[in-house]
Amino acid sequence: MKHKYLVGVYNDDDVLLNAVTQARKEGYQMHEVFTPFPVHGLDEAMGLQDTRLHTIGFVFGAIGTLFALTAMSYIMSIDWKVIVGGKPFFSFPAYGPISFELTVLFASIGMTVVFYIRNGFSVLRDAEILDNRITDDKFVMAFCLKKYHEEADITKITGILKQSGAEEVYVKEMENELEANLIKKDGGVIVESHHH
Amino acid sequence: MHYTSPIREPLINGNKSYHDITEDISRSIEQPPRLWWIALLISGTVATIGVLLILYTIWKGIGVWGLNKTVNWAWDITNFVWWIGIGHAGTLISAILLLFRQRWRTGVNRAAEAMTIFAVMCAGLFPLIHMGRIWMGFFIFPYPNTRGILWPNFNSPLLWDVFAISTYFTVSLLFWYTGLLPDIASIRDRTKGLARKIYSRLSFGWTGTAKQWQRFESLSLVLAGLSTPLVLSVHSIVSFDFATSVIPGWHTTIFPPYFVAGAIFSGFAMVLTLMLIARKVMGLEQYITIAHIESMNKIIVMTGSIVGIAYITEFFVAWYSGNVYEQWVFIRNRVADPFIFGPLLGVEPAPYWWAYWSMMTCNVLSPQIFWFKKLRRNVALTFIMSIFINIGMWFERFVIIVTSLHRDYIPSSWTYYSPTWVEVGIFVGTMGIFLTFFLIFCRYLPVIAMAEVKAILKVAGDQYIEKIAEKEKAEKEQTYLGGANLAGALHDKDDK
After folding, report:
1. Which positions in chain B touch A57 (Cβ < 8 Å)?
2. Nearest to B3 among A48, A104, A196 (CB)
3. What does the angle CA B373 – CA B375 – CA B381 come to, to the nearest 5 degrees?
4. B246 CB near a chain A CB, below 8 Å?
5. A101–B contact, CB cutoff 8 A
6. Is A81 on the interface with B (CB under 8 A)?
7. What is the Cα–Cα distance from A101 to A97, expressed in whole angstroms?
8. How far, in Å, CA of B425 to CA of B417, rounded?
9. CB contact under 8 A, A105 and B170
10. What gap in Å lies between CA A77 and CA A92, rounded to an integer?
11. B154–chain A Cβ distance below 8 A for any pair
12. Is the CB of B188 less than 8 angstroms away from the CB of A42?
């Protein structure tokens, strides 16, 4: 089955941000927004749930520290005691550098791997490209036509897109369904204005 | 939302649109300059010679190097520290400057990060070859083994180095490649046929959704936050290799900050050497502007001066300590030249005085010209200086290592070290390896972070800066007129 999306194409990040706010104000939740670079405040304007990636980083980092400290303490003071100039077997300060390095290593690898998994990124994955110009200079807002299938809604959304400055509005059929975003439970605050 | 001071110099010139940025940066991938093949041929040849000499060393043994019982590591460890130092600028630009919100980083961060990775690869080669039996290299990693549960010594800075360098390489690679995803996707969406298929694999399915960007930003920020202490720790640990020993000339507590400053200093010099050529050959003058060059030169004059203070402090402490061995190393092995200081102090000239004074001239004296704005903005001069600094920083490591070792406590073991052609060849070879990788990177991947440049266009593009300045001016005039009216009104009131 094909999946249909109503797509609005914008030229400018500020115009897009206002359009997102406007659509949500009218009660229409966009399925996804695509941009060529990170647009600050976009996730907030869309009501997207915050990412928990940094927490993952912390957890992996903590595992790294604990692993390094336990492993070194066990090796140096239980498993393989080596007399080095009469120094204590358990020498905490000497464990500092490696504990630090492993904290950073675990946190970075853990976070990056989770980043790839959560985004579904892999060498085998073919990108679901809605519009070739997204990675160049176009800002695209897509509404799922499975959700908004009634004629009245479609007309209304098309109106909002055009009126908020979309230079093109069209319907696009995709082979696969685009993954839906998790929206904040309260729907998120509708951010009022993004003009300077 | 976008605010910038009107006095800021634009970082993107030529009235660019988002599309222009994609076009300009993709051009060198789609229509590579002919010079690229010539450059690749030369660097590839040098790299091959380097690899052959490495194989020769492994085949014959370390005896083909100029090392002896007194100077048991010299050229190899110098090159190791030098290459690691070169890499540090990449992390500084991509991580530390991200945390400090320095927008000019976007013009050079991608190439500098790539440089970090290739430099660390070249650096890692040297300790590996110096092991002698490189096929036993995995012995340096701690893992439960069948050698009678033999563990490496976790109290040794050499093992800390193993962890520091491998972590540094891994994190830099993750940071760099993940940062590349959106730009690879840009190239993917412009190409057709086989190229599209390949870039499609390399882009890992990036589409640029708001959620992807949200996670991307979170990952970049945390990786930057982790890389910042990491890069400082790496060169600190490299300096521990020397500082924790009790060799006069090495046993110095200021080594960690001194090494880190030196690393950033030499790294920026290398970034400038490469980027000044790249911006010319690939026509990127509007993205790597004179403002970028000036910013980098400011960092060079600052870190160069820190390094200078470190040299002087180190010397002063050696003298002030009253320790004859320390004094010997600094005065008789390093400073005493045959012309001024030797005769002045009434001592024999130091065998390596020329190395010490090359280091002083290249690292401390010459960068001081960058206190002048006009000189900081001179491209040709910057290029020459960047080469000077690279030479000077190589000599710094040579001075630290060889001058401290070549005269032992027992005069009978005093010696003089000079490299053999094999050592020189391997060092030159690593430059070939480094350049070959860098050229391949320039040819197939975007050298400038397109997405990041687009993100700062509205605050750093020349057309926007002009508009912002005009608006500021208009607002100021408004305030002034308003003030006059208010004064008039008050005046009227007084009259009544």
Report:
1. 222, 226
2. A196
3. 155
4. no
5. yes
6. no
7. 6
8. 17
9. yes
10. 11
11. yes
12. no
With CB atoms and an 8 Å threshold, state whether A101 touches B153. no
Tell me the C-alpha to C-alpha distance, in Å, between residue A55 and each of A114, B176, B219, B356: 11, 22, 11, 49
Cross-chain residue pair A104–B171, CB shorter than 8 Å? yes
Q: Tell me how close the Cα of A87 comes to any Cα of chain B, in angstroms.
A: 10
What pLDDT shows up at residue B485? 55
User: According to the 3-state scheme, what is the secondary structure of A52-91?
Assistant: CHHHHHHHHHHHHHHHHHHHHHHHHHHHCCCCCCCCCCCC
Distance CA B193, CA B32 (A): 18
Q: CA-nearest residue of chain B to A75?
A: B151
| pLDDT at residue A38, as a whole number | 93
Task: Give the angle B150-A61-A110 at the CA atoms, nearest 5°.
Answer: 95
Distance CA B339, CA A43 (A): 68
The predicted-structure confidence for A30-63, as pLDDT tens digits, reads as follows: 888 999 999 988 988 888 888 999 999 999 999 9
DSSP state of A38: P
For residues B56 and B31, the model is more confident at B56
Q: Does B192 touch chain A (CB under 8 A)?
A: no
- CB of A182 closer than 8 Å to CB of A48: yes
| Each residue's pLDDT tens digit, B209-250 | 999 999 999 999 999 999 999 999 999 999 999 999 889 999
Q: What is the pLDDT of residues A135-190, one digit of tens each?
A: 998 999 998 888 888 888 888 888 888 898 889 888 888 888 787 777 776 666 66
Tens digits of per-residue pLDDT, B162-217? 999 999 999 999 999 999 999 999 999 999 899 999 999 999 999 999 999 999 99
pLDDT attached to residue B484: 54
Instruction: Decide which of A182 and B374 is more confident.
Output: B374
Cross-chain Cβ contact B174/A97 below 8 Å: no
Q: Measured between alpha carbons, how far is B426 from B439 in angstroms, rounded to an integer?
A: 20
Mean pLDDT of B294-310: 93
Question: For position B389, what pLDDT does the model report?
Answer: 94
Phi, psi of A181 (to 5 degrees): -90, 150
Å between A159 CA and nearest CA of chain B: 23
- B305–chain A nearest CA distance, Å: 28
B334: its two tokens: 């390093």
In this model, does residue A70 exceed pLDDT 80? yes
CA–CA dist A123, A116 (Å, integer): 10
Query: Which residue in B has a C-alpha nearest to residue A43's C-alpha?
Result: B210
Q: Which CATH number among 3.30.70, 3.10.450, 3.40.1130, 3.40.140 corresponds to the domain A3-50+130-174?
A: 3.30.70
Chain B residues with beta carbon closer than 8 angstroms to that of A61: 226
pLDDT higher than 50, residue B327: yes
For chain A, domain boundaries: 3-50+130-174, 53-119
* Å between B174 CA and nearest CA of chain A: 7
